[in-house]
Each structure stands twice: as C-alpha cells, then as structure tokens.
Amino acid sequence: MPPRASGGSRTALTALGAVGAIGAAAAIWGIGIERYLFTVRFHEVPVLPAGSAPIRVLHLSDAHMAPWQRRKQRWIAALAELQPDLVVNTGDNLGHAEGLRGLRAAFDPLRGVPGVFVHGSNDHTAPSPRNPLKYFMGPSNVRPTTEPLDADALDGYLRDELGWIDLNNAVGTVDAGGLRIHGFGVSDAHCDWDRLEVLPELVEGMRNDRTADLTIGVTHAPYRRVLDAFTDLGADAIFGGHTHGGQVRVPGFGALVANCDIPLRQARGLSTWTHSARTVPLNVSAGLGHSIYAPVRFACRPEASLLTLTARE
Q1: What integer is the mean pLDDT of 117-137?
Q2: What residues are paired with 115 via a beta bridge?
C-alpha cells in the first residue's frame, strides 16, 4: 500500500487546492462575467458660475471596440437615454481594424449631442499581446504594431458625422446645455504625442475671441505633466482615461497599476488635482473595454460616467 500523507502534507495540499479553486473562480468571474457588467457612475460637480442651470456630461473612454462586441455596443447606445448635454470622449475607441463598424452602432444614438474627443494610441494602431507582469515595472513601453488603424476614418466619423470637436493638441468651443464651453486637449501623452507647449497661445486666442462659462481639459493618459499644465491653463474640470481603473483591482485596496504616473488612488473615478495653488475636479474613467488580448476585469467594472455639473456655492 502507498504511504499515507502526513497531517502537514494533507494541510498543504488542501491549502493549495483552495488557492487553486479561488484562482479559478476569480478567472471565471473576471473573464466570463464582470467584463460584461457595464455600469454608469454618477457624480455631481459644482463648477459652473453662480445661477447656472445644471448640465449633464457623459464621459466615455477606452471602448477598445471590436466589431463582434455587440453587447457592449447595445449598452453604449442605450446611454443616449441619459440625455446628456455634452459628451467627452477620452480616446482608445478602436480595438480592431474593423472597430469603427462597432463604434457606429454604439455612438450613432448620440448624434446631435455636442461633444469633444482626443486620441489614445489604439485610435492609431491595433493592440498587441503584452506580458501583464511588466505593468508592475512602470508605464508600458510604446511599441508600434504592424497593423495601423484608420484614424482618419475614425476622426471623420466623430468630427464630421457626430459633430464632435477634435481637441488633439488643439482648442475648441462648444455650446451645450445653454452654456458656452471652452475646451483644450492633447493627444496620447503615453506615446509622447502631447504638445503642451502649443496650448498656451491657442488657449489665449480662444479666450480673446469669446468668454465662456466653463473651461475643460481633456486628455487620454492622465500624466502628471498634463494635469499640471491643464490646471495652470485654467481648466475648471479635467477628464482622462487610459488607466482602465487598474483593470484588475484588489477589493479593499484598489488599483495595482495605472500605466502612467498618476497616483494609484486616482486611477479611477472623481477626485481633485492641485497645482500652483489651484485645485480642480479630475474624472478618470475606468473605461468601457479592454484589449482583445487581455479580456478580463476584476473588481473594476467597465463604465461610463455621467457628471452633473452644477453652480458653485
């Protein structure tokens, strides 16, 4: 007869089995369930001039859309029922060469709603397989893929068909909810595509042209240098994406990685950013999707944000 395992061996085997079962259950949840549990996060932000009526801002980010992701497309399309006054899109819309087909199904119900947008890297190049452990060593290296995406077609859709304003290293003015809103933004800072040096002159020219009730700063990757510059340029509120909220979070702790230099506690949700004695609201979206090569969410549901901007007290 084979020798019986000792008590200590049996305890170790039981522990290993429990760890394996927990890991398998977490994988099933993150891959098979939670990444489909889309949610809307609601916030109220007092940033408008006294006496202003509230406006509703829908913040969308990181759709990483592939054409077969119809569940996600239907859910995004239904967000039009929230009746936003303004859409802020912080990039990484595409996740596949045919992703624009899925975006049309998702975003078409928002036609007629004023909006602004900036790019993430996955608006230009397709995603590629990555070693997830490398994210713990700091922001990922930017590696161009062999599959470029049609950013011109994407911009044509967002700008010319939906009527949203392109804020990639640019400024623009939009009328929404009875307010005049100035916006400025940068292209993906994670790829060093941001051109912060061009913004001061552009912002000054925009303000000289006409005053506004609100000024917003829009970026894909919320790097500190961008947030500092936006605060100095007079943003009343800042919008970012890119982090996926960590994508895999530890309950009770939060994000383990942010893939940029923002503090981990600010990798998801509404917080504030302070620089040069100014403090402004900052909303970092955990995003709507994920790379097709990393189809998982854990303790970090895919999301959109609806921010009700109200008058300052």
Answers
A1: 80
A2: 87
